[in-house]
Amino acid sequence: MIYERPRYLPGGDRYMLIEFGNEMNLELNFKAQGLAAAIQQSGNGGVIETAPCFASMLIHYDPDKIGFKDLTKEMQSLIDALGPSDDIELDSRLFYFPTCYLDPWTKAAVDDYCAKITKKKWDPEYVAELNGLADVQQLVRVHSGTEYWVAALGFWPGLPFMMALDPRCVLTAPKYNPPRTWTPQGTVGMGGASTAIYPVATPGGYQIFARIPVPIWDTEKRFPEFSQSICLFRPGDRVKFVPVGVEEFEHVEAQVKDGSYVYNVVDYQRFSVRNYQKWVKSLNKSDRF
Amino acid sequence: MAERIETMVPGNVWKVLVKPGDKVSPGDVLFILEVMKTEVPHTSEQGGTVKAVHIVEAQEGVDAGMLAVEID
Amino acid sequence: MFDVIQPGLETSIQDYPGRIGFWNQGFPPSGPMDSWSFRLANLLVGNPVGAAGLEAQYMGPTLKFSRDGVIAICGADMQAKLDGQPAPLWESIAVKSGQTLAMSAAKQGVRAYIAFAGGIDTPPWLGSRSTFHKAGVGGMEGHALKPGQSIPVAAGQGAAGAGTAGRKVKPEARPRFPSDKTWSIEVVAGPNDDWIDEAGQQRFLSSDWKLSAKSDRTGFRLDGPQWTFTEKAYKKAPENGAEPSNIIDHGYPLGAINLAGQTPIILVNDGPSMGGFINPYTVPSAAFWKLGQSKPGDIYRFKAISVDEAQAQRLALNAICQNSNIV
Question: Which domain holds residue A203?
Answer without folding.
Answer: 91-282
